[in-house]
Amino acid sequence: MTQRPIEPHIPVLTDVIIAAGPTLPSLANRDELAAARDALVAELQTALASRAFALTEQLLRGALAGLEATLIEQITAKLRRELPELIDATLREHLGGEDLS
Question: What's the total number of domains in the chain?
Answer without folding.
Answer: 1
